[in-house]
């Protein structure tokens, strides 16, 4: 009873935390990479750099 509930809660919490962290990290990395790539690309194209 107790062990099952504890294991389930722990597994769910861990999975949720991992998924959230992964999603956040992925979104952050993607946004940063996209922003950097776009900024650099436009900078080079229009001679701002």
* Overall pLDDT confidence: 88
Identify low-pLDDT runs. none
Number of strands: 0
Distance between the termini: 65 Å
Report the β-strand fraction as a percent range.
Answer: under 5%
- Please write the string of helix (H) and strand (E) elements: H
Please identify the structural class as seen in this structure: mainly alpha
Number of continuous helical runs = 1
Radius of gyration over all CA atoms, rounded: 21 Å
* Dominant shape: rod-shaped
Proportion in helices: over 70%
Main sheet makeup: none
Descriptive overview:
With 49 residues, this protein is mainly alpha-helical. It has a domain at 18-49. Helix content is 90%, strand content 0%. It contains 1 helix and no strands. The protein has one helix spanning 2-45. The longest helix is centred in the middle third of the chain and has 44 residues, at 2-45. The radius of gyration is 21 Å and the shape is rod-shaped. The model has no long low-confidence stretch (mean pLDDT 88).
Briefly characterize the structure.
The protein has one helix spanning 2-45. It is mainly alpha-helical and 49 residues long.
């Amino acid at each position: 009873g107790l062990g099952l509930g504890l294991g389930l809660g722990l597994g769910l919490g861990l999975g949720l935390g991992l998924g959230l962290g992964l999603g956040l990290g992925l979104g952050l990395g993607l946004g940063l990479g996209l922003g950097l790539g776009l900024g650099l690309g436009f900078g080079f194209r229009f001679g701002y750099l």
